[in-house]
Amino acid sequence: SRSRGRTNKDLSKLAEQIRQTGGIDFEKPFVLGYTGLSDAMLQKYIKDHESFWKSSVDGLETSSVGGTIGTHIGPGAIGVAFFSAGD
Questions:
Q1: If residue 52 lies in a helix (H) or strand (E), which one and from where to where?
Q2: Is the pTM of this model over 0.70?
Q3: Using an 8 Å Cβ cutoff, are 75 and 5 in contact?
Q4: Nearest-CA neighbor of 80 among 3, 7, 27?
Q5: Using CA atoms, how far apart are residues 84 and 87, in angstroms rounded to an integer?
Q6: pLDDT by 10s per residue, the chain, length 87
């Protein structure tokens, strides 16, 4: 899932998309990614949505998104790759 832009509305939309899939299965691999030179937007998302992960894991793996995908979605995007808990 991904959310483009820099608004709280966009971040809430990403959170809602995750909820609709059944949530994140924290027993399986997952990663949060960001585009651009700064992970500030991703850190805001993590802080604002602590309820998703706080009771399930000690920390979150994050990574910058590579140039091939990053070029298409632009700077300031965040994404989450995960297995759904609803599966």
A1: helix 50-53
A2: yes
A3: no
A4: 3
A5: 6
A6: 444 445 667 767 888 888 899 989 999 999 999 998 888 888 988 888 888 788 889 888 899 988 888 888 888 888 889 999 876
